[in-house]
Specification:
Strand content: 25-35%
Helix content: 25-40%
Number of strands: 19
Low-confidence stretches: 99-123
Oligomer: single chain
Shape: globular
Largest sheet: 8 strands, mixed
Structural class: alpha+beta
Order of helices and strands: EEEEEEEEEEEHHEHHEEHHEEHEHEEH
Number of helices: 9
Length: 318
């Protein structure tokens, strides 16, 4: 049985409906879920599936979206029996647990809290992947300097646009974490297409983010992102949230963080750089220390201007 919603309308009516991959919610009848609640906006919220997970996000409403009594300003993953409140309308997210998930949960309980032991019971699919991690620079300061209504509109638009950008370039968004996105591309042997696609995505995310002030002039300042790109092996389809797991993921987050120390926009590891055309050298080479690793990592660090020049060079050779 797939996920579904139990809705209690403002006038006391109740209804139940399956939860589609994308569900718009609001007072306008064109929405997938029409709620004639006087406190709702015409386009109020969206519930959107990413893989096997569902996220709720505010579409920039006037009165806000509340998840379990807390107002949200960025997409939040829904869990079973979560309550989404819009005005005086309550939406309960129902996600039945499958038999396989029940078995895995029982195994995890028997294995105790030792993660290494639990891993013995997980049938992981190990694949070669490219991981992209990107977040907005200075997000905490941003969130404290603008009204919550504006922050909600900005972040809802950014997250929707980020997902569309990743998917348009053949990637998959694994999850959103605060103001950060984690995406993946599977790599077929030493095929360069995944590296090119993820690099193109990074450039497009930069253009998207810097252009936010045109759409939201109330921001008063240009937004910027940092990006980490990492290639390696990961366990795919782990746990009930079907996520990716492995050192390649952790290192990707470290690479994104390293952009601040290196004063650049994008940092990529050596295996990723090796997938790019042999005649191209993108950015400068550095040795960086990474938490949890004894040896330093060899990385390439560059600006988005250099990435743009890289793609201009590719066009020039075609």
């Amino acid at each position: 049985m797939s996920a579904h919603l139990e809705i209690r309308h403002h006038d006391g009516r109740t209804e139940s409906m399956p939860c589609p991959l994308v569900l718009t919610i609001g007072r306008d009848r064109s929405n997938g879920l029409w709620i004639p609640d006087p406190l709702s906006s015409r386009s109020h919220a969206i519930i959107r599936a990413i893989g096997k997970d569902y996220y709720v996000l505010d579409s920039g409403s006037r009165n806000g979206v509340f998840l379990n009594s807390r107002r949200i300003s960025a997409p939040v993953q829904l869990k079973a029996n979560d309550r989404v409140v819009i005005g005086e309308t309550q939406i309960t997210f129902i996600q039945p647990v499958s038999m396989e998930e029940t078995v895995n949960n029982n195994v995890s309980t028997k294995a105790g809290t030792n993660f290494a032991e639990t891993m013995h019971y997980i049938r992981a699919d190990i694949r070669s992947v490219v991981i992209l991690v990107s977040d907005i620079r200075g997000f905490t300061a941003l969130s404290e300097s603008i009204p919550i209504d504006l922050l909600t509109k900005v972040m809802s638009y950014w997250f929707q646009s980020v997902q569309e950008t990743v998917e348009r370039n053949g990637g998959v968004v694994d999850k959103f974490i605060g103001d950060c996105v984690l995406a993946k591309w599977e790599v077929d042997r030493n095929d360069s297409s995944a590296a090119i696609a993820s690099l193109k995505t990074a450039l497009e995310l930069d253009i998207l983010t810097r252009g936010m002030t045109k759409r939201f002039p109330e921001l008063h300042r240009e937004l910027h992102i940092g990006v980490g790109l990492n290639k390696g092996d990961a366990a795919v389809g782990i746990g009930t949230d079907n996520t990716i797991l492995g050192d390649v993921v952790n290192t990707a987050f470290r690479l994104e963080s390293a952009t601040k120390d290196l004063g650049c926009d994008l940092v990529m590891n050596a295996p990723f750089s090796s997938l790019l055309p042999a005649e191209s050298v993108l950015g400068g080479r550095h040795q960086i220390a990474v938490k949890g690793k004894v040896e330093q990592l060899q990385v390439n660090a560059c600006t988005f201007a250099e990435v743009q020049a890289f793609f201009d060079g590719i066009k020039g050779t075609n």
